Predict the 3D structure of the following.
Amino acid sequence: MPLANSGNILFTTLVGKAEGTAGTSANFSSGGRKFLVEPTGLISIGKTWDLGEERSVAYRNSIVATTATLISVEPTLSVSVPAVSVDELAVWLGMANGGTASGTAAPYSWSFDWAMGTAANSPRSFSFVSMDAFGGTAGGGNAYLLNYCLPTSLTIAAARDGLTSLSAELFAQNIAESTATVAAATAIPTSRFMSGRLWTAAVGTALGTATTYTSTNYVLDFSLQVDTGIERQAYLAGTEVFSTHAESGRFGGELSLTVQSNAAASSTWYQSLGSQKFVKLAWTDGTYSAAIYLSMIVSDVQPIAGEEDGLTTMSVTGTLALDPTTQKVIIVTVTNTINAIP
């Protein structure tokens, strides 16, 4: 039967907190983290209704105003972080892969190492409170609570002319208006932002943190999308919301690079079309750091893609792919000031 979907909500402030038990909304009276997102983000409420257009009631208008039936509730959340900090990067990664932290004082070391077999990657579900420009109900505005949120994709991007950015697509179990007091709503995180120019790119002969990589000094920008493979699982379980999640989707993604179109780039990328490549993307400000190690197939190259600052550019696309030797696709390490997912 014809269906209708409920509308969307714009927000200006987003506060998140890891759930102790997936699906049990976090208590925001203490802890949590205020995320430095773009001024507006998008929540799709995801309520699907059967309005009864195909039911015959012997009237010219077959829709009866009192018989709309709720079929499912599947909210989604789209987040854009124009300037991600090195602390916040670990938090977003931790939603997709619980990660492990080590160290007794900052900088703490984080490792996010995705298993590609049947082993669980232990993603951390989050609750989020989104608020409008009035600061939620305390300021005379609106606030909404989303629980059991997990990311389906994460994208990290950096260029020469700005800070490192991050975007995320997440699903949620439910959404409701909230009057909760959110302790972290007025806190301003102070961790280091990540200048795009401090990233370096390198290629290696194997996947791993101990592998030797050879630097390439002609990369102009990159964008890495990781599809987490985390899926909501809904059953006939007496409720309109999903019951649990599973790492049942295909894990993958894509790395896009813009590079100077020169002989070295041609040798590295154009001549490797259709072949496996090991790439390391590394960032450091001298105190804190992040490194991304990945295996990919060079799937597309545009040798003369455009021009920047008088340089002919080449665009390179790599599809994340399993390395048969290590049975891995991607490893991310981060050093920062936090030793737990808030």
About this structure: The chain is about 5% helix and 45% strand. Residues 3-336 form one domain. The chain has one domain: 3-336.
